[in-house]
Automatic annotation (TrEMBL):
Lineage: Eukaryota, Viridiplantae, Streptophyta, Embryophyta, Tracheophyta
Entry binding sites for heme: C440
GO molecular function terms attached to this record: heme binding; iron ion binding; monooxygenase activity; oxidoreductase activity, acting on paired donors, with incorporation or reduction of molecular oxygen
Name listed for the protein in its UniProt record: Cytochrome P450
Pfam families: p450
Alphabetic keyword roster: Heme, Iron, Membrane, Metal-binding, Monooxygenase, Oxidoreductase, Transmembrane, Transmembrane helix
Amino acid sequence: MAVITLYTVLIAVVAMSLLSLSFKKLRSTKVKLPPGPYGLPLVGYLPFLGRNIHQTFMELANIYGPIYKLSIGQKLFVLISCPTLAKEVVRDHDITFANRNPTIAALAFSFGGKDIAFTPYGPEWRMLRRIFVHEMQSNANLDAFYALRRNQVKKSIKDVYGKNGTTIDVGMLAYSTVINMITSMFWGGTLEGDIGANINAQFRDAVSELLIIWGKPNISDFFPFLASFDIQGIQGDMKRASRWIENIFDFVIDQRTKNNTKISNKDFLDFLLEFKDHETGKSLSRPQIKAFLADIVIGGTGTTSTSFEWTMAELMLHPEVMKKTQEELTEVVGDANVVEEYHFHKLPYLQAVVKETLRLHPSAPLLLPRCPSQSCTLGGYTIPKGAKVFLNAWAMHRDSQLWENPYEFRPERFVGDSNKLDFSGNKFHYIPFGSGRRMCAGLHLGERMLMYTLATFLHMFHWKVPDGEKPDTGEKFGVVLEKSTPLIVIPTPRLNNLKLYH
Ligand code: HEM
């Protein structure tokens, strides 16, 4: 006990000295920092953040304005919640802000920040991003992998049909469908039979565990000098979970390369192993291949599946919108057919439902923080090099000066040409996939998976909540913004031709 107290005092003394040094340094350089709340000595604003920090950040914006700062431990956070300043970050100073400040957990999983999400801006990142966005996820490739996605959705339809009339957890349905689509696109038919099922199940569990660990606040991120102690064990847990996932990646890559396994459908692994950069003539190294796969798993699973769950929750709360969405599906797809991706462009109302859901419930409400590579000025204030800069999409999506009745779920606001808002991030008050150079690198795949799963499940089934229950829209902040209570619903088949469910 005495030893623990001694350590605590020692750590506090060192932290105080470091803090006072950094404040002295800031004062001596006479910079004009944005306004912001005071916190407690040492920990700063940490004790006041609350569980849903995106909501706290919006309340603070109402007090301090569209740009403010706060300190947490040794870190300076800058919060931005107006489109004009957001534009300054992602357009006017885009290169300065095209860097990340990864957490310790993120570094542990991304091969030390060697992936797209965390590689610093520069030629290496530009090369990774070009391959990932323009080549790996080209329309032709995404079309080629469609059969793999389709097979997995068919399996989920069969599962849901088997639960006809009983309750199911929508979040779990969405997560398993999305991760099955992703693993299938990764290594397709390489892993057949029991071994395949076993590896895929292990993979699914490892990814869920990793997302949970990643979502835990880590004291070492706020006090970097404590990092080597790994007080909460988060770094160790993350390394273990990542190693587990990496072993699965290695196993599958070895299977494919050593046995030269022939598969019927082309998948991401084929693409990555065969890839030769037409500019440099170079192939991808094994760590690069694994980093690409990691980005898809981490970037694509939680975001897409929670967006599915939020959409279903809003539809359950708005039966008139549900009715209109299903009528559109009936008209476009027809009662005797299943949904195909080529139907999407004829489903403007469903597209509007998805856009409206992502306005109210963006998976990453504060996007991924950016970190200026040099000090610069925003809105007349100095933003020091190394600060963590958050664009508060959640607050901008709910700002009554930017949206009419912002708290109402009204897909109609996205219908028609007069208000053409899309996911490109060019209108800075609507940025569910971010904006600028570092906007979501998986937008095309994410949009396809989300639209396809939603359209299919809405077309194939009627959904109702158990008697006496009402879905809510309570939120839980984490790696992605989840529903605080799971959405439980009862499906019944909607189409007469029951063969379509097998
Ligand atoms: C509904 C689905 C999705 C949503 C709402 C979403 C949202 C986002 C957001 C808000 C960012 C931060 C952008 C910024 O800082 O400006 C981001 C980054 C990223 N996303 Fe997504 N995402 C989705 C699906 C996906 C998928 C399917 C993948 C992988 C195929 C993916 C991979 C990435 C990567 C790699 C980054 C980092 C980009 C960089 O730093 O250059 N995301 N995503």
